[in-house]
């Protein structure tokens, strides 16, 4: 499309705000972040420069790679757990629950926690998992254990549990949508041809739902990868994730150059991941027409 | 008519906004400080007397002051870092020198603090002493057979999973003293490596590094930890006030406790300088010094100000007229290589 004199005012009215938004709040800040990554820290502050020392430090000092690998591990665990919980849930809502009202009610109950403050929901897990917490009171009062256990809180398992709880709606939403959009006649056709329920799922429903799996997994992974609250609230001494490192570099360490270099790396990692996921998504697409 | 009326309303609205904005600017004080340093008890007295509205924000460690100021100006007017952070803030250009003549009661402050070489530099005074105290160890008396007397208790496998430690570079000072180094603020590379190795070895014993006084109080009260370093006075008071059926007790280890002195610094180009000076003066008065000492359990820096508002027993407990007590403590100093220290502490936290 070429812009004619007549369409330009309309075009500008419609798109200038979003374009300015993208430019001012995304493109410019990213450019600043990437360039600060080449600056030099010099006590007590830092000064503009162009050098690769920050990147060299990130790769030379094992503390950064340790944390990046740990973050990848936690995010992957959260994604897998959220998928294992979210897929059956979405499937149940779409194919098993017959009453639309009940289905909507159950779907809303999955989504509603998103309206509650993230911090509050994470904090709640502290109350559940703590030494004096709800879970321990239950175990002690039912006689399953004689004294409260301290294995539930302040470790990586607690972080995974909390993050799965918080991000499961982001897995269920896209899955629910794709499953709900699968034409029932395809399932009926498969059954008419004498295929059993499991093979119908495996050969018909699952391939058609891959788009939702990829979308849900990508969102869950990226959100947990960038999380910094769970390590602070329910993580233990070995729970630092990459967002906490960033926080430290921009905070206590006052080393914005190193922090920017680290953030640039994290951004690159997430971009690669999104690229991979969009390829996967395209590969799994089935033409229904 | 209608246009005139509308513009009159607009003008009125605009005119009414201007003084409001001015008044809001003229009578407020944004104070970046520690938990317990801006409690209602004495702050409301200041607000009533000065007409300045105090808004307090809190830091979890001394390294947060520069970080918050670096994020942009105009947010805070007054900060209260410890002495070891005073030189750094001056060098970074975040603070303005102070006209001590404008501070009532400045002469009553212990000269050991008000004339300290980091407080007075380049011929100017950069900080107004506020309060001082120590960092010692606290433990759950009912969980220990014998009374601990050494930092070794933080490294004792018998308390695996029940140890906490302040998430702060001072973790290095504690470990260095435990390892027997006496140059804790100027450790060599080998010494720092040894400290780091010791702290990483300690990690399985740690339940949680605490980041705020409130968090440590919660960890102690909820039985998550039995021993930690703590801001002397504050945490034990807060935990014991909760009456959980157990007591936490403070002790000074044989390797010494740490001492600190917090002082008020004026943020450069603060639009509320007037309120800041009024506040600094107020904090040298009886209401200010006794109010803060009572709220925190720490020691007043102005013995003259507290003469009338503390009884003799409390004066003795809070080391009034006993600035010599400083000598029994390892007073914080800015580490010679601050960046290296922070990097080492971050490496400990990042380790598996």
Q: Would you give an account of this structure?
A:
The complex is a heterodimer of chains A (about 290) and B (about 350). Chain A has one domain (about 50-285): MetI-like (MetI-like fold). Chain A starts with 6 loop residues before the first helix and ends in a 6-residue tail after the last helix. Chain A is globular, with a radius of gyration of 24 Å. Chain A is mainly α. In chain A, β1 and β2 (about 45) form a beta hairpin. Chain A has a two-stranded antiparallel sheet. Chain A has helices at about 5-35, 55-60, 60-95, 100-110, 120-130, 135-140, 155-180, 185-190, 195-225, 230-235, 240-250, 255-285; strands at about 40, 45. Chain B folds into two domains: about 25-130 and about 260-325, Periplasmic binding protein-like II (D-Maltodextrin-Binding Protein, domain 2); about 135-260 and about 335-350, D-Maltodextrin-Binding Protein, domain 2 (3-Layer(aba) Sandwich), CATH 3.40.190.10. In chain B, about 40% of the residues lie in helices and about 20% in strands. Chain B has 14 helices and 14 strands. In chain B, the strands form three sheets. In chain B, strands 1, 2, 3, 4, 7, 10, 11, 12, 13 and 14 form a ten-stranded mixed beta sheet that branches. Chain B has a two-stranded antiparallel sheet with strand order 5-6. In chain B, strands 8-9 form a two-stranded parallel sheet. The interface of A and B includes residues 154 and 237 of A.
Labels describing this entry:
heterodimer; A: mainly alpha; MetI-like fold; 12 helices; 2% strand; B: 352 residues; D-Maltodextrin-Binding Protein, domain 2; 14 strands; 39% helix; transport (chain A); transmembrane helix (chain A)
Please give the CATH class of chain A. Answer: Mainly Alpha
The CATH topology of chain A comes to MetI-like fold
Q: Terminal Cα separation of chain A, in Å?
A: 28 Å
For the secondary structure, the number of strands of chain A is 2
Q: What does the main sheet of chain B amount to?
A: 10 strands, mixed
* Element-level helix/strand string of chain A: HEEHHHHHHHHHHH
Strand content of chain A: under 5%
Terminal CA distance of chain B reads 76 Å
Give the strand tally of chain B: 14
Q: Report the uncertain regions of chain A.
A: none
- Number of domain modules of chain A: 1
Give the CATH H-level superfamily of the largest domain in chain B: Periplasmic binding protein-like II
CATH architecture of the largest domain in chain B: 3-Layer(aba) Sandwich
* CATH topology assignment of the largest domain in chain B: D-Maltodextrin-Binding Protein, domain 2
The overall average pLDDT of chain A, rounded, is 91
Q: How many domains, in number, for the residues of chain B? A: 2
Instruction: Please give the count of helices of chain B.
Output: 14
Across the major sheet of chain A, the strand order is 1-2
Organism (chain A): Shinella granuli
Transmembrane segments (chain A): 12-39, 74-93, 105-123, 160-179, 199-221, 258-276
InterPro entries (chain A): MetI-like, MetI-like_sf
Membrane topology (chain A): Multi-pass membrane protein
């Amino acid at each position: 499309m070429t812009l004619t004199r007549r369409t330009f005012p309309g075009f500008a009215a419609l798109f200038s705000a979003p374009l300015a938004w993208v430019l001012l709040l995304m493109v410019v800040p990213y450019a600043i972040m990437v360039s600060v990554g080449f600056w030099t820290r010099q006590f007590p502050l830092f000064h503009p420069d162009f050098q690769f020392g920050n990147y060299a430090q990130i790769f030379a000092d094992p503390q950064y790679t340790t944390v990046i690998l740990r973050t990848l591990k936690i995010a992957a665990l959260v994604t897998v757990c959220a998928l294992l919980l979210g897929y059956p849930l979405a499937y149940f809502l779409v194919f098993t629950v017959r009453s639309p009202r009940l289905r909507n009610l159950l779907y809303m109950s999955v989504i509603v926690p998103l309206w509650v403050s993230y911090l509050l929901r994470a904090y709640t897990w502290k109350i559940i998992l703590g030494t004096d917490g709800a879970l321990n009171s239950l175990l002690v009062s039912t006689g399953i254990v004689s004294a409260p256990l301290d294995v539930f809180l302040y470790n990586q398992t607690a972080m995974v549990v909390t993050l799965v709880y918080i991000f499961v709606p982001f897995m269920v939403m896209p899955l629910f949508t794709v499953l709900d959009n699968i034409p029932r006649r395809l399932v009926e056709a498969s059954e008419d041809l004498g295929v059993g329920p499991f093979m119908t799922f495996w050969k018909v429903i699952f391939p058609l739902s891959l788009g939702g799996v990829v979308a849900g997994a990508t969102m869950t992974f990226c959100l947990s990868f960038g999380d910094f609250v769970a390590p602070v609230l329910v993580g233990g001494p070995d729970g630092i994730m990459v967002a906490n490192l960033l926080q430290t570099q921009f905070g206590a360490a006052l080393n914005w150059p190193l922090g920017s270099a680290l953030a640039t790396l994290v951004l690159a990692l997430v971009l690669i991941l999104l690229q991979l996921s969009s390829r996967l998504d395209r590969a799994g697409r089935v033409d229904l027409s | 008519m209608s246009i005139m009326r509308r513009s009159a309303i607009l003008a009125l609205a605009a005119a009414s906004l201007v003084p409001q904005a001015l008044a809001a600017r003229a009578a407020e004080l944004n104070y970046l400080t520690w938990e317990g340093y801006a409690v209602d008890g004495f702050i409301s007295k200041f607000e009533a007397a000065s007409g300045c509205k105090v808004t307090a924000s809190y830091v979890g460690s001394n390294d947060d002051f520069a970080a918050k100021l670096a994020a942009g100006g105009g947010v805070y007017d007054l900060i209260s870092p410890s002495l070891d952070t005073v030189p750094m803030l001056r060098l970074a250009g975040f603070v303005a020198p102070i006209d001590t003549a404008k501070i009532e009661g400045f002469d009553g402050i212990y000269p050991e603090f008000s004339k300290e070489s980091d407080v007075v530099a380049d011929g100017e005074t950069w900080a107004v002493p506020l309060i001082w105290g120590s960092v010692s160890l606290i433990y759950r008396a009912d969980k220990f057979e014998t009374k601990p007397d050494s930092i070794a208790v933080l490294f004792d496998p018998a308390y695996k999973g029940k140890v906490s430690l302040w998430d702060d570079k001072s973790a290095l000072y504690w470990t260095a003293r435990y390892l027997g180094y006496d140059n804790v603020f100027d450790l060599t590379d080998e010494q720092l490596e040894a400290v780091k190795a010791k702290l990483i070895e300690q990690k399985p014993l740690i339940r949680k590094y605490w980041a705020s006084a409130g968090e440590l109080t919660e960890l102690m009260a909820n039985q998550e930890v039995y021993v930690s370093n703590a801001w002397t006075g504050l945490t034990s008071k807060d935990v014991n006030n909760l009456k959980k059926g157990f007591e936490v007790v403070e002790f000074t280890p044989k390797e010494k406790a740490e001492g600190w002195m917090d002082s008020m610094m004026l943020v450069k180009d603060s639009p509320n300088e007037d309120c800041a000076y009024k506040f600094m003066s107020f904090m040298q008065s009886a209401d200010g010094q006794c109010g803060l000492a009572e709220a925190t359990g720490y020691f007043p820096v102005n013995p003259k100000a507290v003469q009338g508002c503390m009884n003799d027993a409390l004066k003795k407990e809070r080391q009034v007229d006993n600035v010599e007590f400083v000598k029994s403590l390892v007073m914080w100093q800015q580490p010679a290589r601050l960046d290296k220290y922070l990097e080492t502490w971050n490496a400990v936290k990042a380790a598996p």
